[in-house]
Amino acid sequence: MNDKLVFLGLLYFVQGIPYGLQSSLLPVYLRGAGHSLTRIGFTKILYFPWVLKVLWAPLVDRIGTKRRWLVGTVSGLALTCLSSAALAPEAHIWGVAGTLLAMNALASVQDIAVDGAAVGLLNGRGELGLGNTAQVVGYKAGSVFAGGGLLAVIDVAGWSWMFMLLTFVYAGVALFVWGAPVLDDEPVRSQHSDGRRAGQGAEAMRPWRVWRKLMAVPGTPWTILYVLTYKLGEQGAVTMFPLFLLDHHMTARELGFWNGIIAMGFSICGSSLGGLLLAQFSIGTLMRRVFVLRTISMMFQSSLLTVLEPSPLMKGMAVLSMSVQHFLGGLITTLTFTTMMHCTQRAEESVQATHYSFLATLEVLGKLLFSALAGGMVDWVGFQVAFLLFLTLSAGTALHVWTATITGALREHQLKEQPQ
Fold first, then answer.
1. Do 14 and 170 form a contact (C-beta atoms < 8 A)?
2. How far out from the chain centre does Cα 106 lie?
3. Model confidence over 394-410: pLDDT tens digits?
4. What is the rounded distance in angstroms from the CA atom of residue 65 to the CA atom of residue 44?
5. What does the pLDDT look like over 299-309, one tens digit per residue?
6. Residues near 222 by Cβ (< 8 Å), separated by ≥ 6?
7. 313 Cβ contact list (under 8 Å, min separation 6)
8. Within a 10 A sphere around the Cβ of 394, how many other Cβ atoms?
9. First-last CA distance in the chain
10. How many whole angstroms separate alpha carbon 210 and alpha carbon 341?
11. Residue 196 — very low, low, confident or very high, per pLDDT cuts 50/70/90?
12. What is the DSSP letter of 46?
């Protein structure tokens, strides 16, 4: 089991690096250069390959092996970082945007392969909880490394040396995956399934049949609505609150430390705790309580928007608010991805990677669309009114989850998890 966790955690770590670069480093850099919140929000378009990944998920399911896909994509990320090292963001902003777009495209394909490997490697509720903890913690650790750590030292190390470091990180992980023993049984499974490949390939040319298979998996309709909406209010707050602090209370370097490292450290703690709690409590009970706590924490954070004068007390309350928000967000993310994987394991093996990628794509789409619009919303109505909307959306999601634990899909999970 430890080999599985190290393997998955490392792959999700390098997968989180592009997200950290774009979600933490790029907005602070652009805001410091005087760009509007609307323009900063539209940089989320660079995440678009994550929305399209469901289109090529069937190819990853049926062509080649997971090991080859993983080695190929991670090696591609190393080459992309090597190209980025030759660019200066001040003079080649479009080139930098192009490399970030390429990194997102490669990371999205890597995500399909590693998710498919995880679905096959993890067995039972205990392994699912720990495996999804490795997924979320690894991804967020990569995000912290790129968006917090590199933001804090970029003034000293420089852009080129930062991307040279990332080149060596990706190259090392590619070599690790090439020799990883946890995938040694995969070619055997592929040989046994050769007899079914032709039929599956023909079916891949009929996407409506794949769609019907995906929607027929028990719990899929509820899970679709949930993953599209569960992060809406939180995503708006997490995206905009640091920029409010940059405008009124903190420098870019302070934000890199407090939001990029400390708050994300709390997020990792929340994700880790989620895996431990899943071994003790039903997922429905946990989600019901945590979503209510998240709504309360957003009420506290919204109240801080009325304070515009800098002070040590305000700075401390802001750090506390971000830390609590990220801790609960990390906990919710682990619970969500466990719910998604539990749903996917009910699907036929031939469409499991596609099913999980479909859910993960919708999860990204829900966050992407709202975070792209959040900046324009704040520019239009101001921070206070926008955060009132964020709070309302968070409360609505808590009600949706609460209802599901009583009459819907999460009640089914609780019944199945009760000891016999």
1. yes
2. 15
3. 898 888 888 877 776 66
4. 31
5. 999 988 887 77
6. 404, 408, 409
7. none
8. 25
9. 25
10. 18
11. very low
12. G
